[in-house]
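STRUCTURE:
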């Protein structure tokens, strides 16, 4: 998968765009998944957390836009974990395409063109996406 305008941070909890390090685990709350089957597009969105620790220079919203989606998988949340954990990213990383059936763990490297993106959330939910490219949109 081609990352158009960002990389994943070395700690695998955020995104790096230029000199910005956007901590999706601590500073942003996950908001929505939008999947357009006819466009083969997935949009994932976060909003900036209102906590005192969050830098006010961080964007208000972050959206990851996946284009040319070929595969999409979601693992359900753990019903024993509070719903307050649904919006908190645990990790973001990549796995090679021959590991499609795996939805736990990740390889801590920047992806090759064939790798799938994997996101785990504190609630136990997980997303796995295979797409041609993904870009980050800041608001």
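SEQUENCE:
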């Amino acid at each position: 998968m081609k990352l158009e305008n960002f990389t994943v941070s070395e700690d695998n909890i955020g995104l790096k765009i230029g000199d910005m390090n956007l901590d999706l685990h601590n500073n942003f709350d996950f908001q929505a998944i939008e999947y357009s089957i006819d466009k083969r597009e997935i949009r994932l969105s976060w909003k900036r957390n209102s906590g005192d620790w969050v830098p006010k220079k961080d964007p208000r919203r972050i959206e990851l836009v996946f284009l040319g989606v070929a595969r999409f998988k979601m693992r359900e949340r753990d019903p024993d974990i509070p719903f307050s954990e649904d919006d908190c990213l645990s990790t973001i990383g990549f796995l090679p395409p021959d590991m499609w059936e795996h939805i736990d763990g990740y390889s801590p490297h920047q992806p090759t063109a064939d790798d799938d993106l994997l996101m785990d959330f504190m609630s136990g939910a997980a997303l796995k996406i295979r797409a041609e490219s993904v870009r980050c949109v800041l608001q």
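REMARK: DSSP finds no helices and twelve strands in the chain.
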